[in-house]
Amino acid sequence: MTTTTAIDQALAHAHQRFADSNPVSRRQFDAQARYMPGANSRSVLYYAPFPLTIARGEGAVLWDADGHRYADFIAEYTAGVYGHSAPEIREAVLEAMQGGINLTGHNLLEGRLARLICERFPQVEQLRFTNSGTEANLMALTAALHFTGRRKIVVFSGGYHGGVLGFGTKPLPTTVPFDFLVLPYNDAQTAREQIEKHGPEIAAVLAEPMQGASGCIPGRPDFLQALRESATQVGALLVFDEVMTSRLAPHGLANALGIRSDLTTLGKYIGGGMSFGAFGGRADVMAQFDPRTGALSHSGTFNNNVMTMAAGYAGLTKLFPPEAAGALSARGEAMRARLDALCAQAGVALQFTGLGSLMNAHFVKGEVLRSEDLAGVDGRLRQLLFFHLLEQGIYASPRGFVVLSLPVADADIDRFVAAIGSFIGAHRALLPGTD
Question: Which of 73, 48, 70 lies closest to 380 in space, CA to CA?
Fold first, then answer.
């Protein structure tokens, strides 16, 4: 039997065990598919043969519709840093709702959250709220286009900046039709050359300090510094997408690296787990949105909704102050070191890339610098790992994405590490070796 055939058979058996164990989720999927394409509104949540329906969550624990219990190691794709139903968040939201949900005006809560964010992230001199990271990135790019009077935007292969801002080696079919120049990630020389070549046309250079959706690929400091220097040289704005990475250090990842962007986008956990995004940075750029003097309008009925404003403030002050961000990242670094040591000792080509509390499993040897380095990975192995983790009571991502939240216990981490060990033991013959 070839390895390819053996992987297919192992995955088919995993699918069958999964289907047999989750009849309620299967019925829920079939019923929802009648009214929603793919039975959902978030493509990332789908996987074959059908996705679990999650019924409830508490702390770092999830239960599906069939009653199975899981340790949560995906944490709403980084938005759920506080876990599920943290009392501090719930109480803040309920108190805000008692004063009225939609107040149709400036409210008492938005200003204090804005001040807190600006104080926490020094590069953000002023900001505006949005409903998502996608909106935040769209508005940041709009600000850069109008501020510079230019049209071209430099982005990087594998970059993901929201549902309409995704890139492979070129823009994805759903990406907005801006004038993009897509360059290889972590290639400082090419970035310098191309930004200099197209300098008079470039409005913005948009990058993640660590690419998240492409597999937790950290940006090399020399690469990120090259972006800062080149953008300054040609008069473009450097925009750092920290929707995911702002949680990776007390004051954001870029700040920890000592690189100051002109604009920064934020989202996910900062809204306390509610719908949230924000964009901000240099005061002169953000002044374009000042209704008293600026030329740009920025609307959004729910941008300053009281539930998000209250939840965000409670989360950042009571649960995730700067020192908590540092501690969570340290726990993630220790976990990733254990996992990589386990894989190296086992002699299989499996590694966990990432920084701090965010990491991704990859069935490949050698340094991962950009998404192209993962082109040869067999996607079926990621699926096999996902279903193995489910059988061990661990809920992660089908693409190998792993996220720590505050309530994850040491025992949960031990269980995760043990599950990787048992996966290697059960499927060693199917895994690529390190030689």
Answer: 48
**Structure tokens given for 171:** 């823009």
Helix, strand or coil for residue 44? helix
Neighbours of 379 (CB within 10 A): 12
Buried b (16+ CB within 10 A) or exposed e, 2-20: eeeeebeebbeebbeebee
Structure tokens at 385: 């790992």
Rounded Cα distance between 342 and 4, Å, is 25
Phi and psi at 335, nearest 5°, equal -65, -45
Token representation of residue 145? 């286009």
Q: What percent of the chain has pLDDT over 90?
A: 98
- Provide mean pLDDT across the span 283-296: 96
Judging by DSSP bridges, how do beta strands 54-58 and 61-64 pair with one another? Answer: antiparallel
- Is pLDDT above 80 for 3? yes
pLDDT in tens, 40-96: 999 999 999 999 999 999 999 999 999 999 999 999 999 999 999 999 999 999 999
Record the tokens describing residue 375, joined without a space. Answer: 């082109």
- Residue 435, pLDDT > 70, answer no
Cα–Cα dist 188/249, whole Å: 24
Torsion, Cα of 401, 402, 406, 407 (10° steps): 120
pTM for the structure as a whole: 0.97
Cβ count within 10 A of residue 30:
11
Going by the DSSP 8-state scheme, the letter that residue 155 receives in this structure is: E
3-state SS, one letter per residue, for 324-376: HHHHHHHHHHHHHHHHHHHHHHHCECCEEEEECCEEEEECCCCCCCCHHHHCC
State the Cα–Cα distance between residues 30 and 38, nearest whole angstrom: 9
State the Cα–Cα distance between residues 247 and 81, nearest whole angstrom. Answer: 9
d(CA 327, CA 317): 15
| Tokens matching residue 64 | 């599906």
Q: Pseudo-torsion of CA 131, 132, 134, 137, nearest 10°?
A: 80
Q: Distance between alpha carbon 159 and the CA centroid of its chain, in Å? A: 11
Sort 36 into a burial class: Cβ within 10 Å, 0-12 / 13-18 / 19+: exposed
The pair of three-digit structure tokens given for residue 330, joined into one six-digit string: 């340290």
